[in-house]
Amino acid sequence: MELLENPIRPYAWGSRTTIADLVGRPVPAPHPEAELWMGAHPGDPSRIGATPLVDVLARDPAGQLGAEIAERWAGRLPFLMKVLAAEEPLSLQAHPSAEQAAEGYAREERQGIPRDAATRNYPDPTPKPELLCALTEFHALAGFRDPHRTVELLRAVETPGLSPYVELLAADPNREGLRALFTTWITLPQPAIDALMPELLDECVRHVKDHGPFELECRTALELGESYPGDAGVLAGLLLNRLVLGPGEAIFLPAGNLHAYLRGTALEVLANSDNVLRGGLTPKHVDVPELLRVLDFSYGDMTVTTGEPAGARHVYRTTAAEFELSRLEWHGDATPARLPGGTPRILATLDGELTVAAAEEKVVLPRGRAMWIPASDPEVTLTPADTWTRAFAATPGHAR
Ligand SMILES: [Zn+2]
Predict the structure, then answer these.
(1) 363-383 residue pLDDT tens
(2) If both were cysteines, with which of 103, 157, 165, 266 could 203 make a disulfide (CB 3.0 to 4.6 Å apart)?
(3) Superfamily name with CATH number, domain 313-395
(4) What is the pLDDT of residues 3-60, one digit of tens each?
(5) What are the C-alpha distances in Å from 162 to residues 82, 178, 235, 262, 378?
């Protein structure tokens, strides 16, 4: 087991305080810091000393990953773990399925689009399921809301310009109606958006003032409208579930799920891929036709889970074969927890400090640090030093 040096991604929506404070650097940081990456992403891998984790894996895939995982994932670590610190909204986006990713990657290779081009949708051929676990109160838009409820929302903020769209959905309150309305809105000519938006946002202001039943949804539309004036993503966001997650609460975003993270700090584990289709709320590359190809228009409440208890761990089980996430918390007692061996593990301490012990090794894992524990290492024992300790462990998933 080895301590990791982890890269920080400086996207503009990040925080100047959260990640700097977590890793023990001066606050505020000179630039926004959005994501702390823990893993073996070829574009920005964690390091053991000066050696990138990807190189460590390449030298001894069977020892580091275990023979089965090494074979299943062609010598690569199938997941990436991140701390995500969002001060401002991220783009409206969805990720492809395995089949869509393979097809999209092959198509863009044939077209000769460089893999690092800003216009490239599929820089790799793999899907990107993600699991997001809130560390603080975390705000997000994710998954289509039940269209009956969305009709109520749109009627509550009804403006003359909006009524044809409300009727479109009210006549067909199902997947097809959602597809029709989303497609109409996201492809609306700019003059039509510019005519509709001020009227809609005025109604949202009124609804917020009156503390109407969709106050939070309207507030979000106003915030997005302020950050991205004239962006069709503000309209599209009205169709999504507005979530407020508490610490430890997680959502799983399978292929085709439309989502936009709004603000808060979260631990995210995802497949080791960069395939993102964006629909708006971003200065980055937006490709609406491609987004429409991968979107899943099923609807309903998102499942929010705090994980299943398994000994001292809470395990977040998903259908993703690439990863499984465990949360470990100690509230005052110092009972050691065990992390089974035989599989590659990344362990990160986010509060307090842990002592990690294997057969003949003992390493202190301070707050804000992460550790690589290869498959060849046995079960490890985790003992907290402080009263309040919180850690996360990621491993490959069990789903096949
Ligand atoms: Zn995403």
Answers:
(1) 999 999 999 999 999 999 999
(2) 157
(3) Jelly Rolls (2.60.120.10)
(4) 999 999 999 999 999 999 999 999 999 999 999 999 999 889 999 999 999 999 999 9
(5) 39, 15, 10, 25, 61
Distance from C-alpha of 244 to C-alpha of 181, rounded to nearest angstrom: 25
Q: Delimit the domains of the chain by residue range.
A: 146-238, 313-395
Amino acid symbol at 239: L
Euclidean distance between CA atoms 185 and 221, whole angstroms: 14
Going by the DSSP 8-state scheme, the letter that residue 359 receives in this structure is: S
Q: Is 139 annotated as a binding residue?
A: no
* Cα 272 to ligand 1 centroid, rounded to whole Å: 12
**Whole-number Å distance between alpha carbons of 78 and 270:** 9
Catalytic residue among 120, 278, 367, 390, which?
278
Whether 148 has a binding-site annotation, put simply, is no
* Separation of CA 278 and ligand 1 centre (Å): 9
How far is the C-alpha of 232 from the C-alpha of 147, rounded, in Å? 19
Instruction: Tell me if residue 125 falls in helix, strand or coil.
Output: coil
